[in-house]
Amino acid sequence: AEEWGLLAETHGFIVAAPDMDSTQGILPNRRAPWFRALASDEAVILAMIEDLGEQYNIDRDYVVLSGFSGGGFPMWYAGLRNPESFQLLIGRATNSSIDLFESIELTDAARQMPIYIFWGKDDLPPLRSQCWQAYRYLREREFWETEMKEIQGGHLRRPEKAYEYWARFMPPKYRDRKAP
Q: Which of 2, 23, 164, 168 is the most buried (most CB within 10 A)?
């Protein structure tokens, strides 16, 4: 959440980043425990949104789920399984797995959600391959609002690139707003 701090202060949005159990390693090495961890992470993400909604005046139509690196696993799992909870998904150099995607029943609501996937040109080849694999998998399943981009540099978080994409979907009242 630290890398989002300045953007959140500048543009007046809330950042929440819970600790995740399923983000260890490039690919899971034991399927059953990993899927239990993903389910736990999903519950934490959804409960966090509920808690924030009770504490703050948040617009539930503009909740974005983003993941970086291994944080892609819970982002894909929770985001694609709960499209009604998120405006869009942003994968920032995220790991992915066909096993993960195939475990999710993809709905029309999920297919209509905008998704942006980007990675650094100098990221490790397995990560670049996983980003491409996620993009291809989603496009083959008619996720037409899915975009991808390779950008300069290596394995960096780049919240400003995620915010630029998110801003495209914000109404002007949010996009042009400055923090109090």
A: 23
